[in-house]
Write a structure and sequence with these properties.
Largest sheet: 7 strands, mixed
Oligomer: single chain
Shape: globular
Order of helices and strands: EHEHHEHEHHEHEHEEE
Strand content: 15-25%
Number of strands: 9
Number of helices: 8
CATH topology: Rossmann fold
Length: 219
């Protein structure tokens, strides 16, 4: 797994190492489903396109919309097995978690990772959702953010792929940096295990070994 604070981060070579030369990438953008389609398209055309970024690096990306598989985890498993990496974008982690539950992605990704047949990667919400609990992240994301077709109940448990919480955008030049500071304070005060990530940082999980990929802070 490769869990980044912001976009691909500063250690994308380590992500591609996990793929062992393979190239097929499914981009999961369901954390952004609360944003209207035309606004998302304009953003991708004018500011940032994960498709273009990954393609420029030699990958073969395409979007994987979990909404297409709500209530049909069998079809989703067949689709997931066509990819070497799922790359999960940022946005609202609680909406993303709903999409993963309603499609059956949560159970499937745990099994596929156990088989070592896929790589999980993501940034911001895509990294946070991999943790054991989403409590405390409500200081950064609205748990009640919804979109059409989503169940309203809030899921507080994450995927449980790592045992500690993750706070992205910590002390970074990002609009959520102040909220990240509050989330980190929450975890400290409650003595809960967590890891902060500055933009550029990533957490690498390989063969059960967890590493923090972080460049030294420059004065």
């Amino acid at each position: 797994m490769y869990l980044s604070s912001y976009r691909l981060g500063d250690h994308v070579d380590r992500l591609f190492d996990l793929m062992r030369g393979k190239r097929r990438v499914g981009i999961i953008a369901n954390a952004l489903d609360f944003i209207l389609d035309d606004a998302r398209q304009r953003y991708e055309e004018t500011i940032y396109s994960p498709l273009r970024e990954l393609s420029d690096l030699g990958a073969e990306p395409e979007y994987l919309d979990l909404r297409r598989y709500f209530g049909n985890s069998t079809a989703l498993e067949q689709t997931l097995r066509e990819f070497d990496l799922v790359w999960v974008l940022g946005g609202n982690v609680f909406l993303l978690r709903r999409a993963m539950r309603q499609s059956g992605f949560d159970d499937l990704i745990a099994r596929l990772l156990e088989e070592d047949s896929i790589v999980y990667g993501g940034f911001s919400a895509g990294a946070v959702v991999a943790t054991k609990t989403l409590k405390g992240i409500d200081l950064m994301d609205d748990p009640n953010e919804l979109a059409e077709g989503y169940e309203p109940s809030v899921l507080w448990e994450g995927l449980g792929l790592v045992e500690f919480s993750i706070v992205p955008h910590y002390r970074s030049d990002h609009s959520e940096a102040e909220m990240a500071e509050r989330a980190a304070t929450f975890f400290k005060q409650d003595a809960l295990p967590f890891q902060v990530l500055r933009d550029g940082d990533a957490i690498l999980v390989e063969h059960g070994v967890i590493s923090l990929l972080s460049d030294p802070i420059k004065d």
